[in-house]
Design a protein that fits this description.
heterodimer; A: Alpha-Beta Plaits; four-stranded antiparallel beta sheet; 6 strands; about 25% helix; flat; B: mainly alpha
C-alpha cells in the first residue's frame, strides 16, 4: 500500500457559484464513504479561506511570517484527501470521482518513502 | 564457423531477441525498472563468460532470468538505498528456491494469454501510462520495449543525450515513487489505454516519417522501430482491430517513404512517384493487416485512414481512383475524429467524387477556421475547386495565398503552373 496526498485546487468564485458547490455535499459524502469502505481513506478536510493563511519561512535564523498563502494563483488550495491505496491507478480513480475535478484540479503527490524501508 | 564464433553470435542474438521479453518478466519479479535493468546487464556480462566456457543453454531466456534474478538479490543485499528492500528480497529468494525460472502461472486476474505475453503487455502499458508525459512515454517505450540506446533516441529526437537520459531516468523514477502499477489495465480501462499505446507508436512513426534534411536517415529508422512495435502489439493483442489498423497504416506509408524524395532530395507528390521504388513486401503486409482489421468489424480511425491510403495506392496502380469510396471513408473519419485537416481532406475528396460545387460547400466553412488559416493545402484545394467551377478570379486569389504559405519549392512551382494556366487573370 502507498500513501497519496490529493491536493484539491479550485478557482475562487462568487457567492452563487459557491452555494452551488456546497449543494454538492452529498456527492462528496458518497465518494468519501466509498473510499472508507475500500479501506483507502486516511483523512480529509476542506481548508478555510486562503486569506486566513500564514506563511512561515526561516532565513538566516530569522523567522519571517507572511500574511497570506504561499503562492497567489488563480486556483487556490481548498482541501485535501490523504489516501492509502495499492497504486497510482487507484488514487487517479479516486481523484477523478471528486466533484471538484470537474471545475478545479486535483494534484496527486505520493508521500515520500524512506529508502530501504 | 568455429564454436566460439557461434557462441558469440548466440550471445548477441539473445541480447537482441530476448532483451525486452526478459526485462518485462524481471521488472515484475524484482519489482522495479532500474533494478531489473541493472540485474539484466549483469546477467549479460556473465552470459558472455559462462556460455563461452560451457556452451549456450537450451533456453537462453530461462538462463538469463534466473541469473539476473540472483544478481538482483545480490544488489538488494548490498544496496541499502533501494526502496522496499526486505520485502523484495524475501519474494525473490522464495522464487529462487522454487527455481521457477520458466513460466509461472499468469498473474493477471483477467487470465490473458501466457505469462510471457502478459509481461510484455505489462511493460508496454506501463511505459505508455497516461500519468507520464507524452515525451516520456515515447522515450521509455523506445528504450525498454524497443531496446534503443539513450544516444540513439536522443539523436532521433534531436535533443542532447544528457537531456534524453534525464527524461528516461525521471520517467522510471516516477513509475517507482508514484507506484504506477505494472499490469495490463482492467477491461473497463482497456479501450482508452490501448488508444494511448497506439498514439505513442504512431507518434514515433510520424517523428520518423516527417523527418527532413541531413538527419533523415537516422530519424527514418524510427519508422522501422514503430512498425516493429506495431507488429509486436498485433501479436500480443490480435483481437484489437485498431492495432491492425495502425500497423496497416504505417506499412502502407512506409512502403512509399523512399519514393517521396527524388535523387536530388526534393519532395515528390504521390501521383508523380517512381512506383518501382515502392516496397512491395511492405505494401502486401499492409494490405493483409488491413484485411485482418476490417474482418473484426469494429471500425476506428486508424483503420479508416489505412483504408483510404490503400485506395490511393490502388488508384495509382490501376490508373483510376475510386473517389466515391474515398469520400465516403473521409465522411466516416470526420465522424470518428473531427479535426480541421480531416474535414479539409473530406471536402477535397467530395470535390473529386461529386463535383467542385459539392466540395466547395464543405470547404467554405473551413476558410474561417483559425487552425487552417496558414495551411497551404486549404488554399490550394480551394483554388482547384474554384478553377474547376469556372471562377478564375477566385482561384487566382486562393493560389496566391497558397504560394505565399508553402515552404516547399516543388509544390510552389506546381501551384505557379496551375495559376498561370487560368484564363483571363492577370499574372501576379
Amino acid at each position: 500500500m502507498s500513501r497519496y496526498m490529493l491536493l484539491l485546487y479550485a478557482p475562487e468564485v462568487d457567492e452563487t457559484e459557491a452555494a452551488k458547490r456546497w449543494a454538492e455535499m452529498p456527492l462528496w459524502d458518497q465518494v468519501t464513504d466509498s473510499l472508507r469502505e475500500a479501506g483507502y481513506w486516511v483523512s480529509n478536510s476542506a481548508l478555510a479561506e486562503p486569506d486566513t493563511a500564514t506563511t512561515v519561512r526561516v532565513r538566516d535564523d530569522e523567522v519571517e511570517l507572511t500574511d497570506g498563502p504561499f503562492a497567489v494563483t488563480k486556483e487556490i488550495l481548498v482541501g485535501y484527501y490523504l489516501l492509502e491505496c495499492p497504486d497510482l491507478d487507484a488514487a487517479l480513480d479516486a481523484a477523478a470521482r471528486l466533484p471538484l475535478a470537474r471545475y478545479g484540479s486535483v494534484e496527486i503527490r505520493p508521500l515520500w518513502e524512506a529508502p530501504g524501508s | 564457423m568455429t564454436a566460439s564464433t557461434a557462441r558469440a553470435e548466440a550471445v548477441e542474438r539473445a541480447f537482441r531477441d530476448e532483451r525486452a521479453g526478459v526485462l518485462a518478466t524481471l521488472i515484475r519479479q524484482v519489482g522495479g525498472f532500474q533494478l531489473a535493468e541493472d540485474a539484466l546487464q549483469d546477467a549479460f556480462v556473465e552470459a558472455v563468460k559462462v556460455w563461452e566456457r560451457s556452451g549456450v543453454p537450451a533456453s537462453p531466456r530461462a538462463w538469463l532470468i534466473t541469473t539476473a534474478r540472483r544478481r538482483a538479490i545480490d544488489r538488494l543485499r548490498h544496496d541499502r538505498s533501494l526502496a522496499d528492500r526486505a520485502r523484495r528480497l524475501a519474494r525473490l529468494k522464495e522464487m529462487d528456491d522454487r527455481d521457477d525460472d520458466r513460466e509461472e502461472p499468469p498473474m493477471d486476474e483477467h487470465g490473458r494469454g501466457s505469462a510471457v505475453l502478459d509481461d510484455r503487455l505489462r511493460l508496454i502499458f506501463t511505459c505508455c501510462h497516461p500519468a507520464l508525459g507524452p515525451e516520456a512515454r515515447v522515450a521509455l517505450t523506445l528504450r525498454t520495449v524497443g531496446g534503443l540506446t539513450t544516444g540513439e533516441i536522443a539523436r532521433a529526437f534531436l535533443v542532447a543525450e544528457p537531456t534524453m537520459g534525464k527524461r528516461i531516468v525521471r520517467a522510471k523514477r516516477k513509475i517507482a515513487e508514484a507506484h504506477i502499477p505494472y499490469r495490463v489495465p482492467p477491461d473497463s480501462e482497456l479501450p482508452e489505454r490501448v488508444r494511448g499505446v497506439l498514439r505513442v507508436v504512431y507518434l514515433i512513426f510520424n517523428e520518423g516519417y516527417a523527418a527532413t534534411g541531413g538527419d533523415r536517415l537516422v530519424r527514418g529508422e524510427l519508422c522501422g522501430e514503430a512498425i516493429r512495435l506495431g507488429r509486436l502489439l498485433a501479436e500480443l493483442m490480435p483481437d484489437e482491430a485498431e492495432v491492425w489498423g495502425l500497423l496497416a497504416l504505417m506499412l502502407l506509408h512506409e512502403a512509399r517513404r523512399r519514393a517521396r524524395v527524388d535523387a536530388d532530395g526534393r519532395w515528390v507528390g504521390l501521383e508523380d512517384q517512381d512506383r518501382s521504388q515502392w516496397d512491395r513486401a511492405a505494401l502486401d503486409e499492409g494490405r493483409t493487416a488491413l484485411d485482418r482489421a476490417l474482418r473484426r468489424r469494429r471500425p476506428g480511425p486508424y483503420q479508416v485512414e489505412a483504408a483510404i491510403t490503400a485506395l490511393h495506392v490502388e488508384g495509382l496502380e490501376a490508373g483510376s481512383t475510386d473517389w466515391a469510396q474515398i469520400a465516403d471513408l473521409y465522411g466516416q473519419l470526420v465522424a470518428l475524429r473531427p479535426s480541421a485537416v480531416v474535414r479539409l481532406n473530406h471536402a477535397a475528396a467530395v470535390g473529386f467524387a461529386a463535383g467542385p460545387a459539392a466540395g466547395l460547400a464543405l470547404l467554405e466553412p473551413l476558410l474561417a477556421d483559425p487552425a487552417l488559416e496558414r495551411y497551404p493545402s486549404l488554399h490550394s484545394t480551394h483554388a482547384d475547386l474554384r478553377r474547376r467551377l469556372g471562377d478564375p478570379t477566385g482561384a487566382a486569389a486562393a493560389y496566391d495565398r497558397a504560394i505565399a504559405l508553402t515552404g516547399n519549392e516543388v509544390e510552389r512551382a506546381e501551384l505557379r503552373r496551375r495559376r498561370g494556366s487560368l484564363s483571363g487573370v492577370s499574372k501576379s
